[in-house]
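Q: Hi! First time doing this. I have a protein sequence and I read that you can turn it into a structure. Is that right? Here it is:
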Amino acid sequence: MIASLALALTCSLHAAEPALPVEAQQRLESLKAGYESFVLKSVTIPYEEGIKALNARVKPALERESAAAAKRKDLDALVRIKADIERTDQGLLLTDAEAPPPESLKNIYAAYKIEAAKLRSTRKLSLTDARQRYDKGLAQVQDELTTAQNVDGALHVKQLRESLANAGDDVAATRGAAAAAPLDGPYTNSLGMKFVPVPGTTVLMCIHETRRGDYASYASASADAGSSWKAVSFESVSLSADDSEPVTMVSWDEAVGFCDWLSKKEGRTYRLPTDEEWSTAVGLAGKEPKAGPPAAKGKAADKVFPWGASLPPPNGSGNYADAAFTAKFPKHFFFQGSSDGFATTAPVMTFQANSQGIHDLGGNVWEWCSDWIDDAKERRVARGGSWYGYEADDALSGNRGGIPPAQRRPYYGFRCVLQSTDTAGKPDAEDALVGRWVFKVGDFAMDKELLSNGSVISGNIPGKWKVTGKLLRIDYSNGAWAEFDLPAKNGRMKGRSNKNEDLTAEKK
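A: Yes, that's right. Below is the predicted 3D structure, encoded as C-alpha cells:
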C-alpha cells in the first residue's frame, strides 16, 4: 500500500544518510514517524475500510449471479465473477476487465466504479496533504542545515524531498504489483516493528515479539483477529493491557492472519518463522541436524540456553518464572535464585538483545512457528519458553513446544519474519506451483489447478492456496484443507489432509 511505499523510500534513504547533528537526526526521525503514522491512520486504513464496505455491498449480487451463471453453463461469466468474488475476499477492488460484465450486473458494476473512483480520489487528496506536511518539515531542516553549512546533510534532506515528490500516487496492493526493493539491512515498517537480517537465512526477523499495539491495528481491520487477546488473565490476575506488551491468547491461525494482513497492507511478505529460521536466530546454526521433524531436534543442543550454559537464568537474561512470579502465584514452581521483576509478561525489549540484536528469544511468551512439530501434523511448533516456564527444559534454546494450532494461552504469542528478497510478487518457488496438479488419496485422483491469484479450481468447491514457510496450504470453502511439504521435487509433493489422509500431488 501507500504507507509501505513511503516507508521504503524514507527508510532506504535514511539508511545511507551522512553524519548529522543529533538534533537534526531526531527531528528527521520524528518527522518520518509522524508522516508514516498519518498515512497509516488517515490514508491507508480509511481506504481499505472503504473498499471493505463497498465490497460487502456488492458481494451478495456477485454470489447470486455466480450461481445463475453456473446454472446456465456460462463459463466465461463464471470465471469473471469468481475472480471478483475472490478479490472482495482479499480486500481488493474489483477487476476493470475489458470484457463487459453480465447484463444483470451492468448497473451494479457501473455504480461500483463510481464509488471506487471516489475512494481513490479521497485517498489521493489525503496522501497529498500528508506529503505536503512532511515536505514542509523537511524543508525547514534542509534550510537549517544549509545555514549551518552542513552541505552533505542538506543534500541528503533534499534527496528525501525529491524522492517524496516523485513517488507514485496509486500503489495497488495486488498479487501482481511490482515488487518492493530487496532488503539487506535493518528495516522498520509502518507499525514501527523493527526487523534485522538473520545471517544464513533469507529473512529479516522482528527484534521483538508482536505487540498488543501491533495486533490492535490488525483487529481494527479484520474480524478474523478474534477477541481473546483483548482482556487476558491468569488465575484471576489480569495481564497488562499496555500496547508494548506481547500479544497473547492468539491461535496459530490468528497469528498467520496477522502476517497475511500485514503482507497485503504493505506489499511485502510477512510470515511466521520456520523452526530452522528460529534456531538460526537463537544461535543454533550448525548445532542441530537439518533432517527430521522439529520434535527430533530438541535435545541436539542440550545444556545450551540463550544466555549460556548455567542455571538458573541470570537476572536480566529473560522473563521466566521467578521470585516475582511465585509471589503472585504461590502454588506454582519457579526458578530458584532467579529474579527478573515480572510476574507475567514484560514489555517487549525489556531484556538485553542477543548478538544479532533480537530480544526475548528466551522467555516472555512462547512463539508460534510455521512448522508442524512432527509427521502427525496435529501440533504446531512453538519456541522460546515463557514467563510461566520454570523447568530447565523450558529454557533450552533447542526446546520445542508442540501445541494444537487452535489453542490459546496467556503465555503464547508470536513474532514475525520478513522475506528479504520476495515482496508483493510471488517468489520463484511459488511461481513454480502455479498450474494443473493431480492430487491422489490412495487410488482416488482429483484434478486441481492453482492459479496465480492465489485461488484453486477444484470442481464446484472454491479454494485458496498460500505458502507458509516450507508448507503449501490449501483451504477450501467447505472447511476442508490440505498441506504439502515444500519444496516440490521433480513436480511431486507429499502431504496430508484434514482427515489425516496421506496425499500426493503431481504436476501435469
